[in-house]
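Troubleshooting: if your tokenizer reports a length mismatch, compare your output against this known-good record of 184 residues.
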Amino acid sequence: MAEGLALLERAVGYALGGLRHVSSAALPRPTPCHEWVLRDLLWHMTDSLATLCEAADLGHIGLKPSGDEPADLVGGLCERACALIHGWAAVEREAAVWVADRPLPADIVAAAGAVEITVHGWDVARACGLDRPVPGDLAEPLLELSPLFVTDADRPGRFAEPVAVSPRCEPGDRLLAFLGRDPG
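Known-good structure output:
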């Protein structure tokens, strides 16, 4: 559980760094996520964090969205991020999280959450006009784990096709490219 939690903590820290640059004027801006503007992405992130909190608090993940969009998307995201770290810090090392009818190691669920939070943290920064590379010490383990979470069956529905980049690119750029983003 320690590795999944450490990745989750670093992913949240990275994403929060970009969220502080979101303004109401930026909400209608396009994002690297196909057909989503920043408001849509922030709502998706809010729902994702709620789902990850549910996994930590209850040991299962429901298949329905968490509810209504909060009035203050950025403030709500920051609060959820803090609750997320607090909740996952209390999860026992050998715990399982049930996704539908399948138990998964909590460490794997936390790592999947770290991938989601990191890539969307980059998306937020990009939508705000910022160049915030994913740090190598975060990107490297996520790049190794990503093929477990994103398969050909997930494309083109949940993720775009991978973008071709040099294998000598920074790990953060290779992670983004694997997840269908153009890091350039």
